[in-house]
Amino acid sequence: MQWDEVRNLYPNQWVLLDIYAKVERDGVIIPLDMKVVNVIPNDGLIVRKARGSLSYLPYHTKHKHISIRNIVK
């Protein structure tokens, strides 16, 4: 599933994604293929869901594009 499809199916919501395929450019990971694992109904659950699994990532569908920046200090 592409990000545009996710945005159309789940408008203006938090979704938990399982990323299947991605491309990395200049330290930024761009997801290409994904599936929606779950809809997160409450903003308070976002952190708990994100910490529960490193392979599932929460995103809000208001964003037109998604990317993952690897921040290491």
Notes on the protein architecture:
A four-stranded antiparallel beta sheet has the order 3-1-2-4. The radius of gyration is 12 Å and the shape is globular. The chain has two helices and four strands, in the order αββαββ. The chain is of the alpha+beta class and 73 residues long. It is 21% helix and 44% strand. The chain has one domain. The longest helix has 8 residues.
Write the layout of secondary structure elements.
Layout (H helix, E strand, L loop, with lengths): L2 H7 L4 E12 L2 E13 L4 H8 L3 E5 L7 E2 L4
Antiparallel strand pairs: 1-2, 1-3, 2-4
How much of the sequence is in beta strands?
35-45%
Category from helices, strands and their pairing: alpha+beta
The stretches of 5 or more residues where confidence is low (pLDDT under 50) are: none
Structural domain count:
1
Biggest sheet layout: 4 strands, antiparallel
Mean pLDDT: 80
Number of helices: 2
Q: What's the count of strands?
A: 4
Output the helix-strand order.
Answer: HEEHEE
Shape, principal axes of CA atoms: globular
Query: Distance between the terminal alpha carbons, to the nearest Å?
Result: 33 Å
- Classify the helix fraction into a percent range: 10-25%
**Radius of gyration (Å):** 12 Å
